[in-house]
Amino acid sequence: MKVVRAGILGFCMGVRRAVEIAERASLETGRAGGLYTLGPLIHNSRVLESLGKRGLVCLKETELSSLPADSTVIIRAHGVSPVIERELLKKGINILDATCPHVKLSQSKARSFVESGYRLFIAGEENHGEIVGIKGYAEDGFSSEHSTAACFVVSNAEEAFSSAEELYRREPDAKTALIAQTTLRAEEYRAIGEKIQQFFPSLEIVNSICTATVDRQNALRELANVDAVIIVGSRESANTQRLFSLARELGKPAWLTEAVSDIPPEIAVYETVGLSAGASTPDDLIDEIEHALVSVTIFPLSSPFYR
C-alpha cells in the first residue's frame, strides 16, 4: 500500500510546548507535594499515559481542595478560568502555565471586550476546556451594572441565531463581538458570524482560529488523489474530530484511529491512503500507523479474497 502523508500533521506548537513543560517538570526534584494537571494536559491518551508514568497526576477541578500547599499544578494547554488560578494561588500552589499562547490571547481579548461593555459571543463546544476558560475570563471582566449576560456560547449557526435574537430583544443597541474556539473550522465560524450579523451588523469578529488548525485542514484538502484517508488522533480531540469530518465531507472513505489496532481490515481494498493527524497526536504514533499501513497487502475488490 502507498501512504501519502499530509504536508502538515501532528503536534502543533501549543501542544508541543505543553508537553515539554510537563516533561521538564517531571524531571525536577523536590516536588514533595506532587505534580498535577487540572484536566488532561492535552487530548491524547498515549501522551497522558507516558506523563503519568513520570509522576504527573490528572485531577478534576472538584479535587482542588485535596491538594497540599507544596504541590505543583500545570495549567493545561486549553487553559482554565481565572477563578481557578486565584484559588490555586490562595492555597500556595506552585503554578506552571502551559496554556497555548493562542488560547491565552483569546482569554485576554474576551475579558477586554466585556470590560469595554461588549456582549461577547463565543463559538465552540460549551463543555470544552478551552471554551470554559475563555468564558471564565469574560465573566471575570463582567460588571454587575450590565442588564444582560456577559457572553453567549454557541456551537453552531442555529444557536448563534437564537442567542443573537434573544440579545436583540433585550438590548438592540448592544456592542457585540465574536471569538472562536481555536480549533473551529473556518466555514463553521463564518456561518455563525453571518447569523449574528443579521441582528448586529457591526459585530466585531476576532480572527482567533489557530493557524495550526487551518494548516492541517488545508493539508488534508490537498490529498485529492488518494483513495481513502486515515486520521490519527484521539476521539476526545476537537481538532482531530474536525479533520475526520472534513475527510468525510471531501467524499473520501475515512477512519479515525487512535492505535494500530484501530486500522480497519477493509483498508486493504485501497491502493493509496492519505494520512493526517490531529494537533495533539505525537510523532511516534503517526510513524507506527504509517508503518502498519505500508505493510498492508492490497486485495482489490475484484480479488477472489472478497468472493
What does it look like?
With 307 residues, the chain is an alpha/beta fold. The chain folds into three domains: 2-10 and 211-306, 4-hydroxy-3-methylbut-2-enyl diphosphate reductase, catalytic domain (Cobalt-precorrin-4 Transmethylase, domain 1, 3-Layer(aba) Sandwich); 13-99, Rossmann fold, CATH 3.40.50.11270; 102-205, Cobalt-precorrin-4 Transmethylase, domain 1. The chain is built from ten helices and twelve strands. The strands form three sheets. Strands 1-12-10-11 form a four-stranded parallel β-sheet, sandwiched between helices. The protein has a four-stranded parallel β-sheet with strand order 3-2-4-5, sandwiched between helices. The protein has a four-stranded parallel β-sheet with strand order 7-6-8-9, with helices on both faces. Strand 8, helix 7 and strand 9 (204-205) form a beta-alpha-beta unit. Residues 303-307 have low confidence and may be disordered.
List the defining traits of the structure above.
about 300 residues; alpha/beta; Cobalt-precorrin-4 Transmethylase, domain 1; Rossmann fold; 3 domains; four-stranded parallel sheet; about 15% strand; flat
What is this entry, summarized?
By secondary structure, this protein is of the alpha/beta class. It contains 10 helices and 12 strands.
